[in-house]
Every structure is written in C-alpha cells, then in structure tokens.
From TrEMBL:
<dbReference type="InterPro" id="IPR050455">
    <property type="entry name" value="Tpx_Peroxidase_subfamily"/>
</dbReference>
<comment type="function">
    <text>Thiol-specific peroxidase that catalyzes the reduction of hydrogen peroxide and organic hydroperoxides to water and alcohols, respectively. Plays a role in cell protection against oxidative stress by detoxifying peroxides.</text>
</comment>
<dbReference type="Pfam" id="PF08534">
    <property type="entry name" value="Redoxin"/>
</dbReference>
<dbReference type="InterPro" id="IPR013766">
    <property type="entry name" value="Thioredoxin_domain"/>
</dbReference>
<feature type="active site" description="Cysteine sulfenic acid (-SOH) intermediate">
    <location>
        <position position="61"/>
    </location>
</feature>
<protein>
    <recommendedName>
        <fullName>Thiol peroxidase</fullName>
        <ecNumber>1.11.1.24</ecNumber>
    </recommendedName>
</protein>
<feature type="disulfide bond" description="Redox-active">
    <location>
        <begin position="61"/>
        <end position="95"/>
    </location>
</feature>
<feature type="domain" description="Thioredoxin">
    <location>
        <begin position="19"/>
        <end position="166"/>
    </location>
</feature>
<keyword id="KW-0049">Antioxidant</keyword>
<keyword id="KW-1015">Disulfide bond</keyword>
<dbReference type="InterPro" id="IPR018219">
    <property type="entry name" value="Tpx_CS"/>
</dbReference>
<keyword id="KW-0676">Redox-active center</keyword>
<comment type="similarity">
    <text>Belongs to the peroxiredoxin family. Tpx subfamily.</text>
</comment>
<dbReference type="InterPro" id="IPR002065">
    <property type="entry name" value="TPX"/>
</dbReference>
<keyword id="KW-0560">Oxidoreductase</keyword>
<dbReference type="InterPro" id="IPR036249">
    <property type="entry name" value="Thioredoxin-like_sf"/>
</dbReference>
<keyword id="KW-0575">Peroxidase</keyword>
Length: 166
C-alpha cells in the first residue's frame, strides 16, 4: 500500500486493500450499536458517505462524527455511515450523549472486515486510520481521502463540495 499515514507524527503501516476512485465498493460486515450484524449492502441504491474514525472517544473523531450527522439531515438521498473499532457499547453511549440520530454508526472491532477491504487498518494500533469515502448509488467509489496525519481533521469542505456534484 502506497498511502502514507502518520499517527502522532510517527509513520504507521496501513493494512488491507487500498481503495481508489473508480473501484467497486466492496461489501463488508460490521456490528451495529445493539450488537446485531450490519451489512453494507443493506444500504441499497443510495449515495453513501463513509466517515472513518479511530475512536469516537477522541476530540477530532467526535467533531467528525457530529459534523457528518448534521450534514445527513440536509440530504435525505445520502446515507452517512461512521465506522470505528470502538465497542458497540461505547458507540451507543457516544451517540446518545451527542444526539447522533441521522448517521449510522457501526463497529469494525470484531473482524476488521471494513478495514481490510478498504485499507484503513493501522497495524501498530489495531485501529482504523481517519478518512472519508463517498460512494455513488451504483456502489462505485467516487471520492477517497486517507487523512495523512490521523490526529488531523479530514477536508470536510472538499468532501461535501464533491457530494454536491452527485
């Protein structure tokens, strides 16, 4: 994988398949906040934003999740999905405390299926790197951002401006 990512300024090894614009979005399985199975294919023929965060219990991840939850109310034709390896119990507590009602929040803690198929696993930490993906209604990857420094914000404006072109 060629994507260079740092965590606290130190390089990390990303594992999994690098996802690129034009790729067909792989289906993946994760876990919902109530411990039920989540299947990406269940989102159907909608535009999807996948907001990838290391942990909802950090300041930037919290901001990113809240921001995309707010954006989800503006476009009913778009599904916003946040994914981390936090335990579903922590995600549920976070969502209740922050009124996350519009975005779907799922965990990749069990099998790292998303992380492997989309290339977001930080080997050294067994966490997901930060990023944003936009997938069109035909499940084609249209936008990819692997944030170069995990402790930095993604480019929200660029992602949201790109979303307006779909």
């Amino acid at each position: 994988m060629n994507t260079q990512v740092t965590f606290g300024g130190s390089p990390v090894t990303l594992e999994g398949n690098t996802i690129k614009v034009g790729d067909q979005a792989p289906n993946f399985k994760a876990v919902n906040k109530d411990l039920s199975p989540f299947d990406f294919s269940s989102l159907g023929k909608k535009i999807k934003i996948i907001s990838v965060v290391p942990s909802v219990d950090t300041r930037i991840c919290e901001f990113q999740t809240i921001r995309f939850n707010e954006e989800a109310t503006k476009r009913p034709d778009v599904v916003v999905l946040t994914i981390s390896v936090d335990l579903p119990f922590a995600q549920k507590r976070f969502c209740v405390a922050n009124s996350i009602e519009n975005a779907i929040v799922v965990s990749d803690y069990k099998d790292l299926d998303f992380g492997q198929k989309y290339g977001f696993i930080m080997k050294e930490h067994r966490l997901l790197a930060r990023g944003i993906l936009i997938i069109d209604a035909e499940d084609t990857v249209r936008y990819v951002e692997y944030v170069p420094e995990v402790g930095s914000h993604p480019d929200y404006d660029a992602a949201l401006q790109f979303l307006e072109t779909l």
